[in-house]
Design brief:
The structure is a single chain. By secondary structure, the protein is of the alpha/beta class. It has ten helices and nine strands. A seven-stranded mixed beta sheet has the order 3-2-1-4-5-9-8, with helices on both faces. A two-stranded antiparallel sheet has the order 6-7. The protein starts with a helix and ends with a strand.
Length: 255
């Protein structure tokens, strides 16, 4: 894949026809499942500084504000930052910066908490992004990195039925018409491979959670959200060992 062209397209969320705020209207279960995971990983800690990389319009910044003195939304899309001005209005401790994940404009070791949620599916090779996270993370800092996982339960069953092992490399899940160098990448990762990539960047995994385990259009129609979230809260930790869900959250720190 031509990474240069992919980076040029990385601000796809500038497309006026794509309103990322409205995208979440029907995804309250997923949003709340991610908040549950972040709360579990952060626990009762408090940080001086937090950065949400690729955080869109600031969806999770409101949560991070409870855990840090200063929060920065580092987002490559100007359109999303424009939406964030209204969404985050009145939250003066949240900065908004136009910034790419592979070129973070922060000093070495200056950030205590980093989150990067729903970004990895655009990164076939996250080497540069992981290196930047490792560089700006403080010596006692922590990062929460979410991975769109190819190793989820349904894919495991499909590969088992075919007598195949799971691929180690990222899997391109774009439609056939979008598999072009000028179209932004959209991949699922093997979590075990991601762990190795994190280690190479000087980051170690301290905790793992399986997230959005109940993600299903059918379940959303027949089960109240409260029940789905109740199961989610219980299941995230025990299901992590088998990478059950479509979304895996890693808590990492510097080696």
């Amino acid at each position: 894949m031509n990474t240069q062209k992919t980076k040029k397209k990385a601000d796809q969320y500038n497309d006026p026809s794509h309103n990322y705020l409205k995208y979440w209207d029907e995804r309250q279960y997923e949003h709340m499942a991610e908040e549950i995971a972040i709360k579990k990983l952060i626990k009762n800690k408090h940080f001086k500084s937090a950065v949400d990389i690729g955080g869109g319009y600031g969806r999770l910044c409101l949560l991070l504000e409870n855990y840090a003195d200063k929060v920065t939304l580092a987002e490559p899309s100007q359109q999303q930052l424009d939406i964030a001005k209204d969404f985050l209005k009145g939250h003066n401790e949240i900065d908004q910066k136009l910034m790419q994940a592979d070129d973070l404009k922060f000093k070495d070791g200056s950030i205590d908490l980093i989150t990067m949620i729903r970004v990895m599916h655009h990164l076939p090779n996250p080497k540069e992004e992981f290196s930047e996270i490792s560089r700006v993370l403080s010596s006692r800092g922590q990062a929460i990195i979410e991975v769109a996982s190819y190793s989820h339960f349904r894919n495991r069953l499909k590969h088992l039925a075919k007598g195949q092992g799971l691929p180690k490399e990222p899997v391109d899940i774009r439609s056939a018409k979008n598999r072009r160098d000028d179209e932004i990448a959209f991949v699922n990762h093997n979590p075990k491979t991601v762990i190795k990539q994190l280690n190479k960047a000087g980051l170690k995994v301290e905790a793992v959670l399986s997230v959005s385990n109940m993600r299903s259009t059918t379940l959303k129609k027949i089960l109240p959200r409260e029940i789905m979230l109740g199961v989610e809260k219980i299941a995230q930790k025990p299901l992590a060992s088998i990478y059950f869900g479509p979304s895996i959250f890693f808590l990492v720190s510097k080696i």
